[in-house]
Amino acid sequence: MTLSKSLAIVAVLVLCSVTSPNPATSADPPVEETLPAGAVARLGAHWFVHQDRIRSLTFLPDGSALFAASSDQACLWDVATGQKRQAWRLESSVMCGALSQDGRTAVLAENGRQLHVFNTLTGKQTAQLADAMNRSHAVSISPDGLRIASGDGGEVVLWDAANAKELRRWRESGTYIKALRFSPDGQRLAIADSGGRMWVRSVDGGEPPVQLDGGSGFSAWLVFSPDGKTLAGSCEVPISGGHRSSLRFWDSTTGRALRIVPGSFNHGAFSPNGKWLAACGLEKVTVYDTATGKELHRLPDCHQHIWSVAFSPDGKTLATGQGQRIRLWNTDTWQEINPGSGHSEPVQAIAFSPDGRTIATGGLDGRLIQWAWPEAEERRRIEGIGSHWGVQHVTFSPDGRTLAVTAWINWDDMFFLFDAATSAPTSRFGKNHQGRSPVAFLPGGTEVLTGQGDGSLAVWDVASGKLVRTVGDHDGGIDALRPMPDARMVWWAGEYQGLGLRDLTTGEDVRVLNGASHHTGARLAVSPNGDWLAVGSRVWDIKTGEVIADGRDAVAAVSPDGRLLATVTGGGIAFWEALTRRDIHTLRTGTGNLNALAYSPDGTVLAAAGYADTKVWDMTGRLQNGKLPEIELTSAEMESLWLTLGGEDAWKAHQAAWALGTGGKAAVAFLSERMRPAAIPHPRRIQALRARLAVPDYDARELAARQLLDLGIELRPKDREALRRPDPAYASRSSPGFGIQPERPPPLLPPPELLPLTERLRSSRAILALERSKAPEAESLLDSLADGAPKAPQTSEAIAALARVRQRH
Predict the structure, then answer these.
(1) Residue after which a domain boundary falls, among 399, 430, 461
(2) Domain count of the chain?
(3) pTM, two decimal places
């Protein structure tokens, strides 16, 4: 080993530490949330997770529960168990929320003109305040729970909480109200608006408003000390030292600034005794001495915004709203209470090992964790990879022995290679590399490929980490790569636009597909047989270059057999079938944003990495403890499954293929009675079908075209032209007063999408069942079907399935 390589590995060891799994610090961790239907495992355990950022936090008076509001919902969380006591969702999103001092009443401002009042014990709505003219960005409840203050554009409205009546209204500014807070005695209101003004007014209007020194910032917030004498909040006014924003403590009576702490803060909370103020912002939570403004404690840095904080009534616990997740901290030790397992921040990358026994996940927390599958247990982890962007991509080498990681760092090496068995670093490279592409192993595993910011591709030697060469260029960065099996070509997707196939020898782009425009974060997926590729949920036919499924930028993954494309949607995970070119199913995950998807090599599960954890979803409908057991099927059951294979419900058809695939020898014998190698079609039949493309009946023409395609006969340009039919919406026009004009030829619609017929669908999905079967007879039947007519779709599918089966062996 060279001295330079030794030094490089030592540097990686200093940066990245290998640790054992981190146990929870409490003997009684909260109860883990039940897995949603269809999920078979959760990698990592976390509690108090919302689907959007936590905007406000408040403990109940007895400290047993925590009220949290985010845009998707408001929840009352049981602190001991981590379970939801109550959850409230509105028709529109939640703008803000507040809890009464006695913990019995919650108010939620909807993204509209309504305020909703709920009883936290029963969960039922008790009132609706609907007389506002504008949406409310701030709301507060008086300590006695009798009055509610809300923002209504530039006005502050005081409501009677009991009968939902407006008591009074103050016209405060021409902008909108950003922050509201009742004083502990309920006699004053602290107010901040979007125009930069901050003031305190008496609720009864008996005293003139008191202006606070400074002005509100982007994340305006105000909070009274328990005795009401001090007011704290964020302020965006330049101060000495070049700081534009600060935390300020004011005398709440005079408005005079008492102390100024430089920095940007999203929220703050006083401790119950008023001696501390916890303030949160980007990546940090800091506890200050209220009397002096000096820093007393700082929680471990994270890589996200912390949007809210709250002390428990006894002051022993501090709750923080880190992104979408609530974390609890012991204020004696400043250690996290029940930190959970796995990642402490969003999971951004995921990959299965080639043998399917390991799942690797990379997070914003800089952790790379390997999980045993199907045990779903943490096997080993590496800490401290990268900077505040964390681990962005992770990939296994073809032999599964090396893990490659992309973790972007300013002016430093951003690509890491680790020994998968020991987690020891083996190489690091990519200093000053432009771009954040994943590492793609070339076939053979001795070289890796990365995309650069100038549009070129960089080839690196795995053993030494040295740059071998750069290949080609493109107008813009390269965001995703997929090398072809022959190691000569690679598909690339541009960071903001462009999609092409590059020759690694010449550097030329031999194919460039039109209609490619996407954003960083979309994933490039290529079918194993090279028939189609996708960027997000937009799919191209590689042979023709046409877009065959128009979609959006999204995280995507293709199944190992190339039959399904999984993409992240707003409601979960959508599945597109290549055979029918249709979306066939949506898996409702019930979680927030998903950042990465990965199929297991055998296609039985799909792992989805999200905000707090990674869930593993059953693709077969029949997994037991992560494994697919063989089952006994009756003749009637097999006959029913056979019919389902050709049915209109494609998702059920795929589930039927899995069922037949686990039916053992009996299922293979059943299929062998119904499947024969495709015969070469007689020329007369082809001629007759082509002749039918000229008949007047357009439906008959379309049927003939579909039959030709199911036989493996390509349509000629004139055949496709014959499928164009007049637009039924067209109507001949006449001009009143000038007589009836001659009829114009109706416009012709493009040729219809020609989907496979029932028998072709059934045959194709039956091959899926044979590929998934572990019975030796299944491979023999595939071998027989592979000897069919060379152009028949069934033959090519059998050949591809047989190759995958033998590769697994």
Answers:
(1) 430
(2) 3
(3) 0.82
